Amino acid sequence: MGIFSQKSKVKPAPQEVRVEKVRVPAKPRPSRPGLAPNSSSSSNNGPRKPTSGPYSASPRPSPKPRLSRPTSASPYPSSADEQRRGGGVLARKRKNITSTPRDSPAFGNDSDDDDNDEDDDPFRKRIRHSETRSVDLNRKLRHKKAFGDEVRDPRMIHAADIASVATKCPPIQGANPEEVAIELQYPSRCTRERYELVWQKDKIDAVKDILSVLEHVAETYLTDDEAKPFIDHNASFKRQMERAISENYRDVAVFRTALQNYNDKLLQLVENGTVARNIDENHHLPPSLVSFILNQIYDRTVAPKVEMLTKYEMGSDNVYGELLHPFITKLLVEQTKMTSDQVFIDLGSGVGNVVLQAALEIGCRSYGCEMMENACNLAEAQEKEFKSRCLLWGVAHGRVHLERGDFRTNAKILEKLKEADVILVNNKAFTSTLNDALINMFLDLKKGCKIISLKSFVHENKTAINDVANSILDVEHYRYHQNWVSWAASEGDYYISTKK
Q1: 113, 115, 309, 468: which has the fewest Cβ within 10 Å?
Q2: Does residue 401 sit in the same domain as residue 306?
Q3: What is the number of structural domains in the chain?
Q4: pLDDT (tens digit per residue) in 448-469
Q5: Full-model pTM
Q6: CATH number at residue 325
Q7: 495 assigned to some structural domain
Q8: Long-range contacts of range 50-54, CB-CB < 8 Å, 24 or more positions apart?
Q9: What's the CA gap between 428 and 431, in Å, rounded?
């Protein structure tokens, strides 16, 4: 902050203005550690926070979890309690690609203003990753195939496959169609992802995506000194790119040059073993990076076909709704405190979002079962891209198992329920018959197994099945935050039951 002048508020005197100079001590900035540790019948997906205006290079796009990306349409009824809080029923639907919330392709103003909030300081933000999470020493983060001598092709869906001149997206302002093709290096020995510098509403925003990747790499994979050429506010690859595409500058050639310099520097750190050594010193990923990777996967697989998820039978158990990434992090990391040697099961897993998040964020064995055909097809596409993206990012994940069919009769799921440590069942719209069937399934759970649900399995009604539920489950009641589910913007109830 330094020293600044401030005019005192005094009564005016004839031909005299008094000026006082006040010295304000600068706030000390804590140094960041080397590789900072991180602080259902429906699918459950992650947070995207649409920006309110056009893309801006000022002061920086943050890869913090985006808490309310537009989500799929859902007929989920909100409870009377949710309605009293003004939530009501929100028939909201995901946009095809939700990483581009802008209404026009205009770029923002240049960011020469140093008066930015301290929360935007990457060095400060990085420290907060480790504040609330215990360390799972058995969790190994480095992908075994990502750092060998051989350059691997992860066979991913490239951003340019979704958003390109060929898909009728116009080049960004200042770019010619002949110079839009670019490539992006990730923190691994994998081939680079292909992007094109194009912009169209509801398509992948190449500039925003690239800047976010760069920042995640610097914050999670590099030490303080190693990260400075990447994200230093005054002179870095990120700063050069931001200036190049700012409204007052707009020089695509400069952007491309800065990107190439970033690619070369990161590849050097990969090839000399720096990135792999840094990964080995950590045991979990920041939630913001988990969310970003999962959003990349969703944008390339589910979002282009999201209309498929609106085809369901009203009033049935097969209703589609999502629990978003921050909610799942709260559940699995903070409340049930899952570890990489445990088993997670999602009963009614939709497009597989929570199954994938558990495998990536926790590193555990993760199972899901879904019976709606369209959701199953999209879940399989996500699983394939998930494995490719984890290799691309150089991070290991837990085993993923996605089953098709009715979880009440699926042999694999019934077998694994006996091993489960945490079960998620988004029973918000389940019929009483299905909820009763679940209670019978829970009889075989091991002692201490946690069941996360949006309706309690124990209620006040005097029925035989409720007596069973009351005898085998201890239930705790909680409230989830606003914008943590796809079908309502309001808060709501959820329950964690423990098998006695």
Answers
A1: 115
A2: yes
A3: 2
A4: 999 999 999 998 788 899 999 9
A5: 0.77
A6: 3.40.50.150
A7: yes
A8: 50/98, 50/101, 51/101, 51/102, 53/102, 53/108, 54/102, 54/103, 54/104, 54/105, 54/106, 54/107, 54/108
A9: 9
